[in-house]
Specification:
379 residues; alpha+beta; Trna Endonuclease, Chain: A, domain 1; 3 domains; two-stranded antiparallel ribbon; 13 helices; 54% helix
């Protein structure tokens, strides 16, 4: 490489000023710039690279550094240009939808003008006898979701009915769409846009936790979100898993706990049935003694009924006795480690002295499962 260069110190200073101007305009753009921390990181890196070629000994490499940074800046501007083109296309598409809707209405109403006029006259007569009111026309709402990360969140919720916010965050982050905090912020933005809502029970937002503190959001696509999903993907969104467990279980917390136990067991390699048949004492007596487990998991080729238990109480012993009598084995998944230890303390003496030899019990907790390093406690 030649030891001469045409890049002056003044030119380097001017280029740094250009980078700072680009950074300032990016910051002013606010939410139109996704992952602003990346922009800040690149700006600091580029300025450091330019400072690195100020010395005469490395000045010959200044041209190459300038070219690389200029290419990166051009790439950013191309991305913004593509965003602008997308906005224009989306606006044109929405305008065309409005035109199509007007044409459809026009075709529907043709030939019925006389009938409509008659109805109008009837309504006018009815309105004449009523107090004067003020009417307001509310335009139909539409959602525009530009962010690819937000689109992936809505796709997961619509395609799979996913409603546990922590699972959504983990899935989107693991797929490479961004860091977990960025996904969490995207969920909040979708809420502000009116696309998703918090699930509610008796008028209050429903949350979930497996131990005290740390409430987790339960979310669902609202009507606007379901409309966006249908237009984007061509079919109706699946029912929210939270809506489903609220219908099947008296407690949303217990239903979500069952979903968590199912997913953790599957992630550990077990075959799990989340819609098990009732275990009957006599297959010929449909309404006789029965046990209805929350899940059935296959361990070492043997089917084990699984009960997900939120609270610990000696009153549950009768239910566990019935399950042991019918299936000969039982797996209990408690919400947290404190409850698992309490349950083991209650069960151990009872199994030894009252139900000796009648069954095998295994315990674990959702807290241990989520930590990733867990095993069954055998009693």
């Amino acid at each position: 490489m030649s030891k001469t260069t045409h890049v002056t110190t003044r030119q380097l200073d001017d280029f740094i000023a250009v980078i700072n101007t680009w950074y300032r305009k990016s910051k002013e753009a606010g939410e139109t710039i996704e992952n602003f921390d990346i922009v800040k990181r690149d700006r600091n890196r580029w300025i450091a690279q330019l400072h690195g070629v100020y010395k005469p000994s490395v000045r010959p490499y200044a041209g190459q550094v300038l070219a690389q940074i200029a290419y990166a800046l051009l790439y950013y501007h191309m991305l913004w240009l593509f965003d602008d083109v997308y906005i224009l296309k989306e606006s044109a598409r929405q305008e065309q939808l409005k035109v199509d809707a007007l044409r459809w209405r026009e075709g529907r109403w043709k030939g019925t003008q006389a009938d409509l006029q008659s109805q109008i006259e009837d309504l006018r007569g009815q309105l004449a006898s009523r107090p004067q009111t003020v009417a307001a026309e509310i335009p139909a709402q539409r959602a525009v979701i530009r962010s690819a990360m937000q689109q992936e969140i809505v796709r997961l919720m619509g395609a799979e009915g996913l409603g546990r916010s922590w699972r959504i965050i983990a899935r989107v982050a693991d797929a490479g769409w961004g860091q977990e905090n960025s996904v969490r912020n995207a969920l909040c933005k979708l809420t502000k846009q009116g696309v998703i809502d918090d699930c509610r029970r008796q008028g209050k937002a429903a949350h979930w936790k497996f131990k005290a503190g740390g409430n987790r959001r339960l979310v669902r696509l609202n009507e606007l979100g379901r409309v966006w999903y249908r237009e984007a993907f061509g079919h109706d969104a699946a029912e929210s898993e939270i809506t489903e467990v609220a219908r099947k279980h008296r407690s949303i917390a217990h239903g979500v706990g069952i979903l968590e136990a199912r997913d953790h067991l599957q992630e550990a390699g077990y075959v799990v049935s989340d819609d098990p048949q009732a275990i009957l004492a006599d297959s010929g007596e449909r309404w006789g003694a029965r046990s209805e487990p929350d899940l059935v998991v296959t361990m070492d080729g043997v089917a084990w009924p699984v009960e997900v238990q939120r609270e610990v109480s000696e009153r549950m012993l009768g239910k566990w006795e019935k399950a042991l009598a019918l299936a000969g084995r039982l797996a209990l998944v408690l919400f947290n480690e404190e409850h698992r230890e309490k349950q083991a303390t209650i069960l151990e003496p009872v199994l030894w002295y009252r139900y000796s030899g009648r069954g095998d019990v295994r315990l674990t907790s959702l807290e241990a499962m989520e930590a990733g390093d867990w095993e069954w406690q055998v009693i």
